[in-house]
Amino acid sequence: MDSLLHRILGIAPVWVYLVVTLLVFAEDAIFIGFVVPGETAAVIGGVAASQGHVQLWAMIVLVVAAAIVGDSVGFEVGKHFGTRLLQASMLDSHRGRLDRAQAFLARRGGWAVFLGRFTAFFRAVMPALAGTSRMPYRRFLAFNAVGGVVWGITFVVLGFVAGQSYEAVAKTVGRSMAIAVAVIVVVALIVWRLRERRRDKAVEAEYETATDAD
What we know:
One of its GO terms (cellular component) is plasma membrane. Residues 36-159 form the VTT domain. The protein is an all-alpha fold. The chain is built from 9 helices and no strands. Helices cover 84% and strands 0% of the residues. Helix 2 (13-29) runs parallel beside helix 4 (56-86) and helix 4 crosses helix 7.
């Protein structure tokens, strides 16, 4: 945790803003979410804000704006290039999940856009799928904007709270104990992430079952 904080604080604030914003934007606009989830960038932005390196309100505004605009670009990409894009070889290993995402979108419409924001794979592909499905942009934007606001605030504030908690522990019981606490937190986050993946798979299985029933 110390190493992470020092690295973040060693970067000029303008670059922290820029990198976090671009990663969140690119996740949905060009599928970079398959490599670096936007939520990771949002949390890092929150950690930087907890140290006073950047402004919390500014980071939240940028992350929310990047999420909404990135989704809108992804929507347009899907609208104009969707068929060819979905046939790309890089998506072959995700074909089953794409089919389930399309089925979910067909059944839930705008709510699929909102809920997809909170699952890494769906967040990366749902905007393009919505564009491909010819969903009216105004409907897409309404659900996309609400999802972007809730998601952006949640993960930036999560990073902010994590950063502040670490510093509070470090000042009270020393760096060694703080590092131990940080390790425990990281392990807890890994466990949470694994459980989330299992939950996502269960949800996807439910979508598949519902699709088969239809």
